[in-house]
Amino acid sequence: MQNGLKRINVDGAKEDLQKRTLGPIGYDFGRVVYLSSLRDFSTGEYHHYGLALSFSESAAAAALATCHREVFYNLTLSPLETFVAQVERFFRSSAHDFERTVNAWESLEGYRVAIPSACDQLSAALFRSNVKVAIALLKSRQSIHPEKAQSALQLPLLGQ
Description:
It is a single chain. By secondary structure, this protein is mostly helical. It has one domain. 71% of the residues lie in helices and 0% in strands. The chain is built from nine helices and no strands. Helix 2 crosses helix 5, helix 3 packs antiparallel against helix 5 and helix 7 packs antiparallel against helix 8. The termini are far apart.
């Protein structure tokens, strides 16, 4: 009986996911990338071991799919300035060189896997377009101000 109760508590699993896991991420682009990483690309099914232990595999999968769609649409429909800022935040959070990260996302188009399976084509196209615009803007900022990026890393000496 307890397992049956776990299965129907999708709302509880979703609330737990939002509070404990997604909340600390702090921004929607990071959340979308994280949620898409929990989806098996062969089957489209979501898996989260800890959430499944507390609720059930089916409740966890449903909560993950629902949150992925909600966060994705919230991000995709946000102002472009906000979207670009979130992409930049994500790229800068990488342990790798910023320019290398931007170039990899541009050439590999890893953002395509961030789109939820149950997504309308117009929203998917808008998301892809927004990421491409963000990448182009970030690359242009780097090429316009390479000396600024370098000088920001240098600390001034005392007396100068």
